[in-house]
Write a structure and sequence with these properties.
The complex is a heterodimer of chains A (521) and B (484). Chain A is of the alpha/beta class and 521 residues long. Helix content of chain A is 43%, strand content 15%. Chain B has 484 residues and is of the alpha/beta class. Chain B folds into three domains: 7-217 and 425-436, 3-Layer(aba) Sandwich (Aldehyde Dehydrogenase, Chain A, domain 1), CATH 3.40.605; 222-413, Aldehyde Dehydrogenase, Chain A, domain 2, CATH 3.40.309; 452-479, no CATH class. Chain B is globular and about 95 Å long. Classes of the chains: A alpha/beta (521), B alpha/beta (484). Chain B: Keywords: Membrane, NAD, Oxidoreductase, Transmembrane, Transmembrane helix.
Chain lengths: 521, 484
C-alpha cells in the first residue's frame, strides 16, 4: 500500500487552472517511471482487491443510497465483477506486458520484429451512475494494468458512491498516480479541456459527442461506452419458461432496467405474442410478487429527472392504451413498477429513445407487414422468384428489418432453438455484442470485448481488452549491421532494379544476389 | 467527379453506398477477393501509368515508385488475399463458469461505409493500402485522394472503376470544399493520413456522428546515433531512409539526428561521403531524388533554411532551384533550440544534427518533444537498445535501420499522441475496419435458479460461494446452515 500523503481529492473550486495543475503533477509522476514496473501495477491491483473485500459493506450501502440497489445485485453485478476483473488482471498481467514477437519479412532479412505494449501516459476515466462502482473501478483497473496514471471522475448522479471513492481510494492505492475528482458539469468541463493521453467515457451519446469533440482538440484517443435500444428477438421455437426468466432478470434484475445492455424492447410474431406476454407476467409475479412496488429486489429510479423522463414515456397518449402489465408509479419513492406494453406505435417516444428503465415494450410483426422496398431489394440482389421468396420466408425474420432500421445497439438478443435463424442473426445484425438464449451474461466473460459500435460506442474493454485499450502497441524492428543489400541504395541502376524486383517477388536467388553484394558498383 | 460536389451530393453518395452495403454486396469472401485481385491486376497492368503519375506529381524515380509504392501495394493485396479467409473466421474464446454451459466467440463485422482520405507524398500507396483494408473487412469505401498530387488523383478516378465494383467503391476528387462536404456525412469510420492540424478537423467532424477515426499523422522522427556503430552501414541506412524516401517528404523519414559532440565530426563526414556516392556531385540534377511537391512546400522549406538563426549551420548542401522545385540534400549542425526548424516537422531534404555531451541528454531531448511516428537508434550496445525501447515513446521504432518497420505486415503501423491514433497494415488493416462483435451462445439448459429473484439469503450465500469458489460455503448454504 503506497500513500504519498497528499490530499485525497480536489475539493470545491476545481476549475481549469486546478485541472491543469493536476494533469501536470500526474505527468511528472508518470515521467518519473513510477507506474511502469510490474510490481507497482500489481500492488495497486492487490490493494483494490483488498479494498473491495474490506469495504464491501460500505460499498453496498453507498449503492443502496444511490439506487436502492438490492444487496444481491450489488454483490453480483458490481462487487464481485470488480474483484474478478482485478484478479484476472493480476493473473495475466505479466503475460500481457511481454512484447509479442512477430515474423520478420524477407525484405528486412536479417531482422527481428516485436510489438511492445507501452502505457499511454495520463488518462481520464469518466464513469456513469447506474453501476457507479463497477463502471468506475473496471476502467481504472485497465488503466493501471497498462501502466498509466489515472484520474477518475465518478458520476455526480450517484453521489454516495462518488464520495466513497474520494474517501476510500487514497487509503488503498498510490495517490500520487491515481486521483479522484468529484463534481458536475463545471468540473468535468475543466477536466475535458486538458490534454489527456486517453479518455474513457461511459454514458450517453450526447455527452459522448462532447467528450470526443473535446478530445479532438488534443488528438486524444477515446473509448466511448454508450447505449442504445437493445432488441430481444423472441422466436416461437423456444423453451418459453426459461426464456421468460432470463428476459425478466436481464431487464428488471439489472438496476430495474437502468442498464446499458438491458433488454429495451422485444420483437416477436403476432401469433406468439400472447403466450410470451402471459409467461412474462407469470415470471414477474413470481419474482417480484403481486405488489412489486414493495419488492426489495428492485432498484428504484435513480432520481426525479429520470422518473419524470420515464413517466413521460409511459403517459404519452400514443402508448397509454398499450400497457398490459404494471404501469404503477410512485413519484415520492421514485418507483415505477415493472411494466409491459404491447404493440406501442413505432413513432412513439418510447420507441425512439433508449428507455433505461422498467418499461418493456413488445412489438409484433406478421407476414402482412413486409415492406415492399425490402422485398424488391431482396429480389433484385438475389434474382430469386417471388414464389421462392415467400416459400422460404420465415416470419420472425421481418423483425430483422426493424432492427436494421435502428441505430446499432450495445447488445442484441435472440431466443430460439432454430440454428438457421441464429446464424442469420449473428451474421447480419450489427451490435456491440450479442447473446443467444440469454441476456446480459456476455458482460461477465473477460475473454469477450465489451463495447459498442456506431451510436452505441467506440472501443472496448474487459480482460485483456482493458489492458490493450490503455496501451500503445509499439512496433519495433531490430537489425544488426550485417545483411546489407547493396541493391537498396542509389544510384538506381537497371541491374539493381531487377534484383530488388526479384527479391520482392519472393525470389530467393534474388535475395542471395542482393546479399552477396550484387551488383558491384 | 469534383464539379459541384457539395454536401447534398455527398449525402446522396453515402446513401447509395449504404444501400449497396445493406444489400449485402460487400460481405462475401468472393466479392472481397475479387476486388483485391482486381487491385493486384491494376498494379501489374497500369504500372507505367502509375509510375508516370507519380513522376508528374513528385518527380519520383521509377525505382522508388516501384519499391515504395507499387510493390508495397501489390504485397499488401497478396498478403491479404492469402490470409483473408482466416481473418474472416470467428475467433472462439474460452467461456466463464458464470455462463456455463455456453460457447463464446468474437466475430469480425464490417463497419459499413467508410471514408479514406489520403496524402500527397505516397499518393498511390497511402490511398490504396487503407482501401485494401476496408475492402478486406467487407466495407463500402469512398476514397478521397490528395489534391496536392493531382495526377495520381485523376488517375484513380479514371482507372479504379475499371478494376473495382463501383457500386461499393468510389473516388471523390477535390480539395477543401469537397473534403468538407464529405466530412459532414455520417461515416462508419474515417481513416485520414496527413498532418495534425487537419487531423483535429477530421476528428472534430467525426465526433458529431460518433464516427471512429484512424489518424496517421507525423512528427519529428529522431535518430539517436551512438559512437559504437558500423559507421559506413549506419550512414547509408540513414541517408537512404531520409532522402531515398521521397526526398525527406515522408512521415517516417529521419527528421533530426542526435549524437555526441565527440562523434559528430565522423558522422557528418560519413554522411557527406555517402550522399556524394548516392547522388553525385550535383544532386540537384540527380534523377534518383524526388523534387519538392509544390511551390508552397518549397517556400516553407526555404524559409526554414533561410532563417537567420540557422544560416551558419549548414555543413552540406543548401543549394536550391525554385523553377525545378529542387532543394539539395542539406545537413545542418547544431541549429539553435528555438529555431523554427527545430520546432516543426521538416518534411523535406534538410537533416538536422544535434550534438550533446552524453547520449542521455539525447533521451531527454526526444522525450521533451511530442511523441513521433517513428524513432530510430543506431548502436551495437544492447543495454542502450533496451533503454531506448523502454523509455522512448513513439508510434514505431527501428534499431540500426530506418523506415523498414513500415514494410513488415506483421507490425502495426500507426502513431501515438500527436503522431496519430489507430494503426494498420496486414491484419491490423482488417481489424481497424472491422467491429469485433462478441457473441455468447447458450441453450436452454444450465439454469441456475439462484440467479433469479426473490433474492433470499440462502440464494445469496450459494451464489457467493460459487463465485468465490468456496465449495464449503455452497454446501453449508444448501443444507441451510447457519440458521438465521
Amino acid at each position: 500500500m503506497e500513500n504519498s500523503g497528499e490530499e485525497p481529492a480536489v475539493e470545491g473550486g476545481f476549475d481549469g487552472a486546478k485541472a491543469t495543475e493536476l494533469v501536470a503533477e500526474l505527468r511528472r509522476t508518470f515521467a518519473s517511471g513510477r507506474t511502469r514496473g510490474f510490481e507497482w501495477r500489481a500492488a495497486q491491483l492487490k490493494a483494490i482487491v483488498r479494498m473491495i473485500e474490506e469495504k464491501e459493506t460500505e460499498i453496498t450501502a453507498a449503492l443502496y443510497e444511490d439506487l436502492s440497489k438490492p444487496g444481491m445485485e450489488s454483490y453480483l453485478h458490481e462487487v464481485s465483477m470488480a474483484k474478478a476483473a482485478c484478479t484476472f488482471a493480476l493473473k495475466e498481467l505479466k503475460r500481457w506486458m511481454k512484447p509479442e514477437k512477430v515474423p520478420s519479412s524477407i525484405t528486412t532479412f536479417p531482422s527481428t520484429a516485436e510489438i511492445a505494449p507501452e502505457p499511454l501516459g495520463v488518462v481520464l476515466v469518466i464513469s456513469a451512475w447506474n453501476y457507479p462502482f463497477l463502471l468506475s473501478i473496471d476502467p481504472v483497473i485497465g488503466a493501471i494494468a497498462a501502466g498509466n496514471a489515472v484520474v477518475l471522475k465518478p458520476s455526480e448522479i450517484a453521489p454516495s458512491t462518488s464520495a466513497l471513492f474520494a474517501k476510500l481510494l487514497p487509503d488503498y492505492i498510490d495517490n500520487s498516480c491515481i486521483k479522484v475528482v468529484e463534481g458536475e458539469v463545471p468540473e468535468t468541463t475543466a477536466l475535458l479541456e486538458q490534454k489527456w493521453d486517453k479518455i474513457f467515457y461511459t454514458g450517453n451519446g450526447k455527452v459522448g459527442r462532447i467528450v470526443m469533440a473535446a478530445a479532438a482538440k488534443h488528438l486524444t484517443p477515446v473509448a466511448l461506452e454508450l447505449g442504445g435500444k437493445c432488441p430481444v428477438l423472441v422466436d416461437s421455437n423456444v423453451d418459453l419458461k426459461v426464456a421468460s426468466k432470463r428476459i425478466v432478470v436481464g431487464k428488471w434484475g439489472c438496476n430495474n432496467g437502468q442498464a446499458c445492455i438491458a433488454p429495451d424492447y422485444i420483437l416477436t410474431t403476432k401469433s406468439f405474442a400472447s403466450k410470451l406476454v402471459d409467461s412474462l407476467k407469470e415470471t414477474l409475479d413470481k419474482f417480484y410478487g403481486k405488489d412489486p412496488m414493495e419488492s426489495a429486489d428492485l432498484s428504484r429510479i435513480v432520481n426525479s429527472n429520470h422518473f419524470n423522463r420515464l413517466a413521460k414515456l409511459l403517459n404519452d397518449e400514443k402508448v397509454s392504451g398499450t400497457v398490459v402489465y404494471g404501469g404503477q408509479q410512485d413519484e415520492k419513492r421514485l418507483k415505477i413498477a415493472p411494466t409491459l406494453l404491447l404493440d406501442v406505435p413505432h413513432d412513439s417516444l418510447m420507441m425512439k429513445e433508449e428507455i433505461f428503465g422498467p418499461l418493456l415494450p413488445i412489438l409484433t410483426v406478421s407476414l402482412l407487414e413486409i415492406r415492399m422496398h425490402h422485398l424488391l431489394t431482396f429480389l433484385v440482389s438475389n434474382k430469386s422468384s417471388i414464389t421462392c421468396f415467400f416459400l422460404q420466408f420465415d416470419k420472425v425474420e421481418e423483425c430483422f428489418d426493424f432492427i436494421y432500421s435502428k441505430d446499432k445497439p450495445l447488445a442484441a438478443y435472440l431466443f430460439t432453438k432454430d440454428k438457421k435463424l441464429k446464424e442469420k442473426f449473428v451474421r447480419t445484425v450489427s451490435a456491440g455484442g450479442m447473446l443467444i438464449n440469454d441476456t446480459i451474461l456476455h458482460l461477465a466473460n473477460p475473454h469477450l470485448p465489451f463495447g459498442g459500435v456506431g451510436e452505441s460506442g467506440i472501443g472496448a474493454y474487459h480482460g485483456k481488452f482493458s489492458f490493450d485499450t490503455f496501451s500503445h502497441k509499439k512496433a519495433i524492428l531490430s537489425r544488426s549491421f550485417g545483411g546489407e543489400a547493396r541493391a537498396r541504395y542509389p544510384p538506381y541502376t537497371p541491374q539493381k532494379q531487377k534484383i530488388l524486383r526479384g527479391l520482392i517477388n519472393g525470389s530467393f536467388i534474388a535475395l542471395l544476389l542482393a546479399l552477396l553484394g550484387w551488383p558491384r558498383d | 467527379m469534383g464539379e459541384g460536389f457539395d454536401a447534398a451530393r455527398a449525402a446522396e453518395m453515402v446513401a447509395e453506398l449504404r444501400e449497396s452495403f445493406m444489400a449485402g454486396k460487400t460481405r462475401s469472401f468472393e466479392w472481397r477477393a475479387a476486388q483485391l485481385k482486381g487491385l493486384a491486376r491494376m498494379v501489374d497492368e497500369k504500372e507505367a501509368d502509375i509510375t508516370a503519375a507519380l513522376h508528374d506529381d513528385l518527380a519520383k524515380s521509377q525505382m522508388e515508385s516501384f519499391l515504395s509504392e507499387l510493390s508495397m501495394v501489390k504485397m499488401s493485396c497478396l498478403f491479404t488475399l492469402k490470409e483473408l479467409k482466416r481473418w474472416m473466421k470467428p475467433e472462439k474464446v474460452p467461456t466463464s463458469a458464470t455462463s456455463f454451459p455456453s460457447s463464446a466467440k468474437i466475430m469480425s463485422d464490417p463497419l459499413g461505409v467508410v471514408l479514406v482520405i489520403s496524402a500527397w507524398n505516397y499518393p498511390f500507396l497511402l490511398s490504396i493500402d487503407p482501401v485494401i483494408g476496408a475492402i478486406a473487412a467487407g466495407n463500402a469505401v469512398v476514397l478521397k485522394p490528395s489534391e496536392v498530387a493531382p495526377a495520381t488523383s485523376s488517375l484513380f478516378a479514371r482507372i479504379l472503376p475499371e478494376y473495382l465494383d463501383t457500386s461499393c467503391v468510389r473516388v471523390v476528387e477535390g480539395s477543401i470544399p469537397e473534403t468538407t462536404a464529405l466530412l459532414e456525412q455520417k461515416w462508419d469510420k474515417i481513416l485520414y493520413t496527413g498532418n495534425a492540424r487537419v487531423g483535429r478537423i477530421v476528428m472534430t467532424a467525426a465526433a458529431k456522428h460518433l464516427t471512429p477515426v484512424v489518424l496517421e499523422l507525423g512528427g519529428k522522427c529522431p535518430v539517436l546515433v551512438d559512437s559504437n556503430v558500423d559507421l559506413k552501414v549506419a550512414s547509408k541506412r540513414i541517408v537512404v531512409g531520409k532522402w531515398g524516401g521521397n526526398n525527406g517528404q515522408a512521415c517516417i523519414a529521419p527528421d533530426y539526428i542526435i549524437t555526441t559532440k565527440s562523434f559528430a565530426p565522423q558522422l557528418v563526414d560519413s554522411l557527406i561521403i555517402t550522399l556524394e556516392k548516392f547522388y553525385g556531385k550535383n544532386p540537384l540534377e540527380s534523377a534518383d531524388l524526388s523534387r519538392i511537391v509544390n511551390s508552397n512546400h518549397f517556400s516553407r522549406l526555404t524559409k526554414l533554411l533561410d532563417d537567420e538563426k540557422v544560416s551558419g549551420t549548414i555543413v552540406c548542401g543548401g543549394q536550391r532551384n525554385e523553377k525545378s522545385l529542387r532543394i539539395a540534400p542539406t545537413i545542418l549542425l547544431d541549429v539553435p533550440d528555438d529555431s523554427l526548424i527545430m520546432k516543426e516537422e521538416i518534411f523535406g531534404p534538410l537533416l538536422l544534427i544535434v550534438t550533446v555531451n552524453e547520449l542521455q541528454e539525447g533521451f531527454d531531448l526526444i522525450t521533451s518533444k511530442s511523441k513521433p511516428l517513428a524513432a530510430y537508434l543506431f548502436t551495437k550496445d544492447k543495454k542502450l537498445e533496451h533503454k531506448f525501447v523502454k523509455t522512448v515513446f513513439a508510434g514505431g521504432m527501428a534499431i540500426n535501420d530506418t523506415i523498414l518497420q513500415f514494410t513488415n505486415p506483421h507490425l502495426p503501423f500507426g502513431g501515438v499522441g500527436e503522431s496519430g491514433m489507430g494503426a494498420y497494415h496486414g491484419k491490423f488493416s482488417f481489424d481497424t475496419f472491422s467491429h469485433k462483435k462478441s457473441v455468447l451462445s447458450r441453450g436452454f439448459g444450465g439454469e441456475v435458479s439462484m440467479r433469479y429473484p426473490p433474492y433470499t439469503t440462502k440464494k445469496q450465500r450459494i451464489l457467493r460461494g460459487l463465485i468465490t469458489g468456496n465449495i464449503i460455503a455452497v454446501i453449508l448454504a444448501l443444507i441451510g446452515w447457519p440458521r438465521n
